[in-house]
Amino acid sequence: MDMKNMREYMGWLYYQYLLITGIYVLEPWEQSIFNTVLFTMVAMVIYTSYVFVPIHVQLALEFFSELIRGQPESTEQTSQMK
Amino acid sequence: MIQTDEHHSCNGTLKSHSDQKQQENNNLKNGYHRNEKVQKNGKGDGFHQPRVRGEDSFEEAPLYVAVLTYMGYGIVILFGYFRDFLRAVGLEKCHQAREREEQKDFVPLYQDFENFYKRNLYMRVRDNWNRPICSLPGPVFDVMERVSDDYNWTFRLTGRTVENVINMGSYNYLGFAENNVDFLKTVAEETRQYGVGVCSTRQELGNLSIHEKLEQLVAEFLGVESAMAFGMGFATNSMNIPALVGKGCLILSDELNHTSLILGARLSGATIRVFKHNNMQSLEKMLKEAICSGQPRTHRVWKKILIMVEGIYSMEGSLVRLPEILALKKKYKAYLYLDEAHSIGAVGPTGRGVIEHFGVDPKEVDVLMGTFTKSFGAAGGYIAGKKELVDYLRSHSHSAVYATAMSPPVVEQIIRAIKCIMGYDGTTEGQRRVRQLAENTRYFRSRLKEMGFIIYGNQDSPVVPLLLYLPGKVGAFSRAMLKRKIGVVVVGFPATPITEARARFCVSAAHTREMLDKVLQSLDELGDDIRVKFSRHRRSYRPELYDETDFELDS
């Protein structure tokens, strides 16, 4: 029963997607083209975020933490020299 | 009551025949207009007072709806360009008209946005319009089923009919579109006497006695001196406005006026200025500017200033602000042309239109125009007003001089409808219908508002626009309603702004409470299924009213 409800719900969600984007009025092959393009773009976004975002975030964190650590070090050296 | 002898002594020199007039003047001098008021509104029930006009609602949708609407149109337009490219390259057959090969270097005929829109958007959802009907357009009707094999470029009828579809689209406000034999007896008799064709214009040999009867009856119904009837409602506007105004006159027309008014105004050659819909500040500003500056280059005085408004605007369902416009008209000495196409017979306590709804004297409006197509179940239009105006139009209007006269059965249908509304046929059927329409209107509108739809317009207007906004939902809505055996009219771009597509319901006096309940229930389900309940003022849900008087209460 739950599978049937799930499938009905997914069907209704797809119908909403068709209505909101306006694809509902298009012919089936045009709908397929749009779905393919949209799916490709979403897949590329997911791939990019999965592969590159952690590395970028890590690099940014290192850069900023070095800035903060770099300041106290230079003041320590000057006080020792005096 | 003051006696005439006392009159003589009070006023000194008095001629005997002017006694009556002096008495009336005395009433006026007292400042107490009570007697006059009873005379004016005497046709209605005793204690009729000018009604307070409810406010028009034009609720705006949430912002995400506007964004999604634009996005939807953008995507479909992109696909439209793609398909046009395929057609131009030759990969796809072009079903629509194209220029011939030899004319390719000429100025293009089919390039503007309207044609692009028609080819690429309208064609895809075209099956929701022009549906063939095979019964009379009463409260229920039969629709012929048709299918399309090539995505709405061509249709074929399957031969089956969908029966008893509830009709929420016909302008059948008082239910006079009926084929009841008893009601149509007089129509049959007149057809037997006069035939069907008139074969002449009113000016030549087409002025039948039945036309004279109709015009007298219309004048009496409206409470004016004289009226004239024409064969077509659209032609009444477009052919008579050029006879009333010409070059050197100014027309101030409302933003949302009907095409017939705009066409008539353009044909006349007068200067046209458009004021914002029902906005009195905009109208007053234009009147002031017109009177101060005069005509555009010469600064001469305008020959005439004509304000053109409609009683009910058919795409919004809003009522005109008649008392304010009359006040402005008197102050700036302009003329008023009131087009009561949708409001005659449909508003007002006895069905006499917006003039009665506001309790205004019909002699204050200069030109009253209306149509017989909507509330009277016939065809044609009328113009009513002072006798001099109507006599002038009889000889100077294009429609009166060149158009064929109205057909006798149609005239008799109008006569019997007016007699029914006025009560001259001896029954209260007409007044019952007017009251039924008012009740149906208020019930339908209030239930729709409660459910959470965005409805435009005044609470008393039987035209109910329900906003859908998104282009995909427009087609889905109409098809789903037909599947549930309810016929609705959906309207999109050229008739409405591009972001405000809507479904327009026309409530009728012939609809019973059960029919309206069925429609409301279907709308409720469909609204949740398609998600068009955009209103943010949703009131608390109340359970349906039952007919039984005793029922178990959960305590």
From TrEMBL, chain A:
<dbReference type="Pfam" id="PF11779">
    <property type="entry name" value="SPT_ssu-like"/>
</dbReference>
<dbReference type="GO" id="GO:0046513">
    <property type="term" value="P:ceramide biosynthetic process"/>
</dbReference>
<dbReference type="GO" id="GO:0017059">
    <property type="term" value="C:serine palmitoyltransferase complex"/>
</dbReference>
<comment type="similarity">
    <text>Belongs to the SPTSS family. SPTSSB subfamily.</text>
</comment>
<feature type="transmembrane region" description="Helical">
    <location>
        <begin position="32"/>
        <end position="53"/>
    </location>
</feature>
<dbReference type="InterPro" id="IPR024512">
    <property type="entry name" value="Ser_palmitoyltrfase_ssu-like"/>
</dbReference>
<dbReference type="GO" id="GO:0005789">
    <property type="term" value="C:endoplasmic reticulum membrane"/>
</dbReference>
<keyword id="KW-0746">Sphingolipid metabolism</keyword>
<dbReference type="GO" id="GO:0007029">
    <property type="term" value="P:endoplasmic reticulum organization"/>
</dbReference>
<keyword id="KW-0812">Transmembrane</keyword>
<comment type="function">
    <text>Component of the serine palmitoyltransferase multisubunit enzyme (SPT) that catalyzes the initial and rate-limiting step in sphingolipid biosynthesis by condensing L-serine and activated acyl-CoA (most commonly palmitoyl-CoA) to form long-chain bases. The SPT complex is composed of SPTLC1, SPTLC2 or SPTLC3 and SPTSSA or SPTSSB. Within this complex, the heterodimer consisting of SPTLC1 and SPTLC2/SPTLC3 forms the catalytic core. Within the SPT complex, SPTSSB stimulates the catalytic activity and plays a role in substrate specificity.</text>
</comment>
<comment type="subunit">
    <text>Component of the serine palmitoyltransferase (SPT) complex, which is composed of SPTLC1, SPTLC2 or SPTLC3 and SPTSSA or SPTSSB. The heterodimer consisting of SPTLC1 and SPTLC2/SPTLC3 forms the catalytic core of the enzyme, while SPTSSA or SPTSSB subunits determine substrate specificity. SPT also interacts with ORMDL proteins, especially ORMDL3, which negatively regulate SPT activity in the presence of ceramides.</text>
</comment>
<dbReference type="GO" id="GO:0004758">
    <property type="term" value="F:serine C-palmitoyltransferase activity"/>
</dbReference>
<comment type="pathway">
    <text>Sphingolipid metabolism.</text>
</comment>
<keyword id="KW-0256">Endoplasmic reticulum</keyword>
<protein>
    <recommendedName>
        <fullName>Serine palmitoyltransferase small subunit B</fullName>
    </recommendedName>
</protein>
<keyword id="KW-1133">Transmembrane helix</keyword>
<feature type="transmembrane region" description="Helical">
    <location>
        <begin position="9"/>
        <end position="26"/>
    </location>
</feature>
<keyword id="KW-0472">Membrane</keyword>
<comment type="pathway">
    <text>Lipid metabolism; sphingolipid metabolism.</text>
</comment>
<keyword id="KW-0443">Lipid metabolism</keyword>
Automatic annotation (TrEMBL), chain B:
<protein>
    <recommendedName>
        <fullName>serine C-palmitoyltransferase</fullName>
        <ecNumber>2.3.1.50</ecNumber>
    </recommendedName>
</protein>
<dbReference type="GO" id="GO:0046513">
    <property type="term" value="P:ceramide biosynthetic process"/>
</dbReference>
<keyword id="KW-0472">Membrane</keyword>
<dbReference type="InterPro" id="IPR015422">
    <property type="entry name" value="PyrdxlP-dep_Trfase_small"/>
</dbReference>
<keyword id="KW-0812">Transmembrane</keyword>
<keyword id="KW-0012">Acyltransferase</keyword>
<feature type="compositionally biased region" description="Basic and acidic residues">
    <location>
        <begin position="33"/>
        <end position="52"/>
    </location>
</feature>
<comment type="pathway">
    <text>Sphingolipid metabolism.</text>
</comment>
<dbReference type="InterPro" id="IPR050087">
    <property type="entry name" value="AON_synthase_class-II"/>
</dbReference>
<dbReference type="InterPro" id="IPR004839">
    <property type="entry name" value="Aminotransferase_I/II_large"/>
</dbReference>
<keyword id="KW-0443">Lipid metabolism</keyword>
<dbReference type="InterPro" id="IPR001917">
    <property type="entry name" value="Aminotrans_II_pyridoxalP_BS"/>
</dbReference>
<dbReference type="GO" id="GO:0004758">
    <property type="term" value="F:serine C-palmitoyltransferase activity"/>
</dbReference>
<comment type="similarity">
    <text>Belongs to the class-II pyridoxal-phosphate-dependent aminotransferase family.</text>
</comment>
<dbReference type="InterPro" id="IPR015421">
    <property type="entry name" value="PyrdxlP-dep_Trfase_major"/>
</dbReference>
<keyword id="KW-0808">Transferase</keyword>
<keyword id="KW-1133">Transmembrane helix</keyword>
<dbReference type="Pfam" id="PF00155">
    <property type="entry name" value="Aminotran_1_2"/>
</dbReference>
<keyword id="KW-0256">Endoplasmic reticulum</keyword>
<dbReference type="GO" id="GO:0046512">
    <property type="term" value="P:sphingosine biosynthetic process"/>
</dbReference>
<dbReference type="InterPro" id="IPR015424">
    <property type="entry name" value="PyrdxlP-dep_Trfase"/>
</dbReference>
<keyword id="KW-0746">Sphingolipid metabolism</keyword>
